[in-house]
Amino acid sequence: MSIDYYNDKLLGPADPPPFTLLNETGKAPLILFCDHAGRAFPRKLGNLGLSQSALDQHIAWDIGIANVAAILSRNLDAPCALANYSRLVIDCNRRLDDPTSIAQESDRIFIPGNHGLDQKARDQRAAEIFRPYHIAVDKLIKAKLTSGVLPAILSLHSFTPVMNGFQRPWHFGILWNRDPRLPLPLMTRLAQLPHVCVGDNEPYSGRDEHGFSIIAHAEEMSLPHALIEIRQDLISDDAGVSRWTAKLEGTLKGLLADPNVFYSPAAK
C-alpha cells in the first residue's frame, strides 16, 4: 500500500520551496532579504478565492523587488534570501500573533481563503512557509558571524505609488528605529543623488510594531540594519529595475567601505 506523504502537508512536490537563496557564500559584509519577494500560492489553497486582477496588484507581493535584490546580490557579492510565497498566504514580516499575519482583507480587498481558518491551518502555513524562510535568513547571518564578519542587514521592499488617493513623492524610503549606523548615512547619500526624493520613515515607519524581520534578525543581535522601500512604478520593468538598482548599488558600495557603519554601539 502506498502512503501519500504529502496528504497532511500544505506544500506538495509541485509547489516551489518556501524560499530561494542567492549567492549564499557571497563575501560582502552584507545580508539581503526580501519578505515579500514572491507571489506563489500552494496548490492546495488555489488563489485564496481572489481574481487574477487582484493577484496582479501590490497586495500579493512587492512588485519588482526580487529583481532588484538579485542584481544587488550579484553585484555587491552579498548573500540574499527571497520569500517565495505571497504575503497573502502568510506575511513573513509579521509576528505570528499579529492579526495581519494572515490578512482577511488587504487594501479593501476581501480575501475569502483567509476567513474561518482554524489553528491547524494557521500553524501549517507558519511551519511550512514562515519558519523555513526565517531559519534560512538566520543561517546566512550566523555563517557571517562564524567567519568573523559583522554583517549589515538590509530588508528590501517596494511600495505602491498611490495609497488612499495620495500620490507618494518618495523614490526611496528608509525605515529605521533606534540604530542610526546604516540608515542615516544611507539617507544622506541617496538624497545627494540628482532628482531623488528620500523618505525618512516614509511611506511607513520602522518604529511600527507590526514589523517582524528586522527586529528578529538585526535589532535583537545589534547588527547595523535598515529597511529600504522603493516605489513600485520605478521598478515595474527591466529598464526601471536597472536604473534604480544602480543608484542604490553605488550608494551601498560606499557605505560598505565605511567603518562607521560597523562600529559596535557599546564601544561608542
Written overview of the protein:
The protein is an alpha/beta fold. It has one domain: Aminopeptidase (3-Layer(aba) Sandwich). Helices cover 29% and strands 16% of the residues. It contains six helices and eleven strands. The strands form three sheets. Strands 1-3-2-6-11-9-10 form a seven-stranded mixed beta sheet, with helices on both faces. The chain has a two-stranded antiparallel ribbon with strand order 4-5. α2 packs across α6 (238-256) and α4 packs across α6. It is globular and about 50 Å long. Residues 1-5 have low confidence and may be disordered.
Parts with pLDDT < 50 across at least 5 consecutive residues? 1-5
| Beta-strand content estimate | 15-25%
Strand arrangement across the biggest beta sheet: 1-3-2-6-11-9-10
Q: Give the terminus-to-terminus CA distance.
A: 66 Å
